[in-house]
Amino acid sequence: MEVDGTAARALAYASLTGPLQVGDLVLLNTTAVTLSLGTGGTHFVLARLAPVPQTPDTEDFPGSEAGHILKLRYTPLQHRILAVEDEASPHRNAFDQFSGLQGTPVVGAELLSQAAAAAIAARATDPRLRIVLVHLDSAALPLAFSRVVSRLRASGVLDATVTVGQSFGGDYEAINVYSGLAAARAVAEADLILIAQGPGNAGTGTELGFSGLSLVEALHAADFLGGEAILIPRLSAGDGRSRHLGLSHHTRTILRCLRTPAVLPLPDQHSTALLEIDPASGHQSVVEDPESAWQALSGCRELLTTMGRRLDQDALFFRTAAAGGLYAARRAAARGLSDL
Fold this sequence. Notes:
Elements: E1 2-3, E2 6-7, E3 10-11, H1 14-17, E4 25-29, H2 31-34, E5 43-50, E6 69-71, E7 79-81, H3 92-96, E8 105-109, H4 112-125, E9 131-135, H5 147-154, E10 160-164, E11 172-174, H6 177-186, E12 192-196, H7 214-224, E13 228-231, E14 235-236, E15 246-247, H8 249-257, E16 263-266, E17 284-287, H9 291-298, H10 315-335
Parallel strand pairs: 3-5, 8-12, 8-13, 9-10, 9-12, 10-11, 16-17
Antiparallel strand pairs: 1-2, 4-5, 6-7, 14-15
Helix pairs in contact: 4-9, 4-10
């Protein structure tokens, strides 16, 4: 598109703006570009200005049968979705029949790149698994912003996605992380659930000021609902920031905040020295050699990056994520595939 006479890149979500055509005049949010942000450093289309769209007739804007839950609530971009919990949802009966996760592995990943690597490793380990991603609302809200998720969904690595809270655009929509996990199991029939925020993890270099702390509530929800809480540690041998080198301070904080035991898969015995687990916490580490899945990850090397680093530039990061996927796949196979 053209902005002040200069070619520029912008994203439009059709569910918010409606369809656009060449020559349309649009209103842009240019904040991310002005701030020179990395993830999200693009313009976003807020609305189509000309020609001015007509107010939809009642017959063009269905009633409660199309859902009454709003996302991006109380903003100019609020829009309704049909949540799985909604009385009008075709999935309401399955949701009502949910009786717990019954030991389903729930893999928490602070970064979406970790979840992607874990999904690829799990799929390579057992193609029969139904793998579902629950997308949190602590970073990018539109699931469509993630090219990684789009590719994994299209290639069959992910069987379904659930967007929770103010996040939107998944195969299924849910009001919160608890109902999102229930939907992943009861509606999407997950054998293995991945849970992560989208692109755009926000951090401030402080102990508590990072968006990935939302993972704590997610793992508490997994435990409360009877799932097996698994946390992928954020390990790195290539991050130039000391606070993220070795074991990230984000993972240290998540471990301190958790009030439920979690399993932390590691790629080798040497990595256990990087963890600082309080024995009283109940957390435990397990070693899962990711070598069997490494070829599958290597086939996605153009897709998998973390802060600009690829597989060969931070192997420890991706090997740890792959170990998480392998461990979860093994646990899922041991409890039996979904018979819902």
